[in-house]
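Justification of computing resources. Each target in the renewal requires a structure prediction run like the one illustrated here; the chain below, 399 residues long, is used simply to show the kind of job we budget for.
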Amino acid sequence: MSVRLPRRPDRDAVLIAATGLLGGLALWFLGLHNNPPLDALPGWLSLVPLVIMCGAELLRRTAPLTALAVGTLTLGLDIGTGSLIATIAMYTDVIYAAVLYGRASVARLIPRVTEVLTVLATLLALALMREPTALVIGCGVGAILIVPAWTGAGIRRHRDAAHSARLEAERTALLAELDRREAVGAERARMARELHDMVAGHLSAIAIHSTAALSIADPEASSRALGVIRENSVQGLAEMRRLITILRRPGGADDEPAAAPRLDGLDVLLEQARKAAADPRFAFALDDARGPGPLPAPIELAAYRIVQESLTNAVKHAAPGPVTVRLAREGGGHLAVEVSSAYGDGPVPRAPGSGAGLVGMGERVALLDGEFEAGPEAGPDGKRWRVRAVLPVPEEGSP
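Resulting structure tokens:
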């Protein structure tokens, strides 16, 4: 079984012990004792408690309660052998260290014990001396016991409060950093969605028509394809410039101008999809049953982007056939957005995709606490791909 030894004393403990030892030796050589020794004991015996108290001082930081127990016993021996003021001074430091560095439960108890001992010592002195001078002895005992104990308690409270404040500051800084990272991540995701939704449709049209222009040896068809390519290039460049302008504005993306896409522009989206598809077998239709009531700007923007991305996916992946966009107000005034297209089983899409569009649509709906689903379903006219989102519309006056 191993025995755990105390740690090496720190520099302050060694310095206090050495100073106390030298001061006590100087007092002993000068014969400056606080009281004569009992029963004519030899004067050199007062050096024994001095040395023991110096040893207790070495434990003031590493084993403060052990130092207090040793120091208390040593103080009684010091009084019996002719007390030295250096020994008493070191004992007051031992009491102070026990309160400051000892266990919290014992540190709270020591000041109360010193008060009780001081009262008992004062009453005992009054009983033995029966003179008011005994109160001076009580004051001296209080200075030796109570003052260092309560000094240590006060410093410990301030130290613990400073430690708690430091931990709270570190916790606040950590939470602030986590909030900053979360905000940066959310903003990056938002800008990625905007960039994808604004540019992906134009680039898909460019990819489809450039493939057609390269594969069809028809000057007229190639000319039409190049016209669509140029139109989508110009529109994509305009969207990119608009996004860069928003990012360069001092207010950032939060200072976006009011000219954001709205559902009133869905006809333009469908017309762009018709040109991008370049296939007469595609039939794009809009069924708008929103009603006359206005919608909040975030709801309109989310619905617009969902329709835009769904049409882009239909142009890239859907089989030729009808593509239907439906808008309706459901129970509670919620806005339902549904885009359905013929489900294509072709091995290769007309334009490459990354799957980020579905992820972005799901994120947009989740930010508004809505419902989102996308996938194939069986219908009366064959298998179709359906994208459906339900966006809660807050009541008037609610945030």
